[in-house]
Write a structure and sequence with these properties.
By secondary structure, the chain is of the alpha/beta class. 35% of the residues lie in helices and 14% in strands. The strands form two sheets. Strands 8-7-6-9-10-11-12 form a seven-stranded parallel β-sheet, with helices on both faces.
Length: 335
């Protein structure tokens, strides 16, 4: 019987129980010889050098140190880096791809709760739940909290900026809500947008036409302040902006002005800076909900990432294509 490949874990220890509960850990150990020591949080120790020398697979996660040419020099047998979370940009150096090492990410699995959060936020935002709940609890005299005039998701025009993994899942989930869908993404065609159930437009047109705008683009130099003062001014009165992608996509100072005036509402799971400093005005506005970057996998949802990773390891061991494969050419445009 052939010897099992050797796998080494490299991530923060707190993530392990959620990612790999006992049954998943048993399945992983049936596929690879898992190094019994603690997960690596540094590649610079003598212990790390010792285990890396025999590693065929690195199973990485949040807190994995950067895998660069110096790390590769201590891991001559390394053939795959399989990541249990989303972006690999922070820890996979281009040298990994240059060395012909297979790289995979569980970004598709991590996109699921982000899409669920986003659509839930849209339903609540379209009902103006956040500001109406405030009226109901604190100041009913300030407005008619019961009035539903102009509210509800039905018939709304929803704009999705970025046909990323998450953006596509959001589009898929919105099809049952009887809304008009717009998508802006320079990397897809009009036919691809149509296949996603949406109309392809540019960002300016999307801002002008949408009643809900949701961001699902990566943080790149060309997307920094993608929604700047000019584009935020294009949003129609009463629009809700939802950002579960990256805070740097939005000009925070410009957004604040529009939200303070009550012209637009916002649901922000990511901000710039992140976190916002205590007392920041966005944290106090009744028409803005700021959450602490929690849309991605947490708690029970971590198991989905672990299951995806175990399945990827199984495909790698069998010599099959990996479902979460990342190519070197993808690095410049992924989150």
């Amino acid at each position: 019987m052939p010897e099992l490949p050797v796998a080494v874990l490299a991530m923060q220890p707190w993530a392990l129980p959620g990612l790999f509960p006992a049954d998943l850990l048993e399945r992983l150990r049936a596929l690879v010889r898992l190094e019994p020591g603690p997960a690596l949080t540094s590649f610079e120790t003598d212990e790390a050098s010792s285990v890396l020398r025999g590693a065929d697979v690195l199973v990485t996660g949040w807190g994995c140190p950067r895998i660069d040419s110096s790390v590769l020099a201590t891991a001559p047998r390394l053939r795959a880096v399989i990541h249990t979370a989303g972006s690999v940009k922070g820890h996979v150096d281009p040298a990994v791809f240059a060395g012909g090492i297979t790289v995979s990410s569980a970004a598709q699995a991590n996109a699921v709760p982000v899409a669920e959060y986003t659509v839930s936020a849209m339903v609540f935002a379209a009902k103006r739940v956040f500001i109406r709940a405030g009226w109901y609890a604190h100041d009913r005299a300030a407005g008619d909290w019961r009035s539903g005039q102009g509210t509800g998701l039905f018939g709304h025009t929803v704009g999705i900026i970025g046909a990323s993994r998450t953006g596509r899942l959001v589009l898929e989930r919105l099809r049952v809500h009887d809304v008009r869908l717009l998508v802006a993404d320079p990397h897809i065609s009009a036919q691809q947008a149509h296949d996603l159930g949406a109309e392809l437009v540019d960002v300016d047109e999307l801002c002008r036409r949408s009643e809900l705008v949701s961001l699902h683009a990566p943080a790149l130099p060309e997307t920094h302040h993608l929604l700047d003062a000019r584009r935020l001014a294009l949003l129609r009165d009463g629009t809700t902006l939802i950002n579960t992608a990256r805070g740097s996509l939005v000009d925070t100072a410009a957004l604040l002005g529009h939200c303070e005036s009550g012209r637009i509402d916002a649901v922000l799971d990511v901000t710039d800076p992140e976190p916002l400093p205590p007392g920041h005005p966005l944290l106090r506005l009744p028409n803005v909900l700021v959450t602490p970057h929690l849309a991605g996998s947490q708690g029970h949802e971590l198991r989905r990432l672990g299951a995806f990773t175990v399945a990827e390891v199984a495909r790698f061991v069998r010599g099959e294509p990996l479902h979460g494969a990342i190519r070197a050419g993808d690095l410049h445009r992924i989150a």
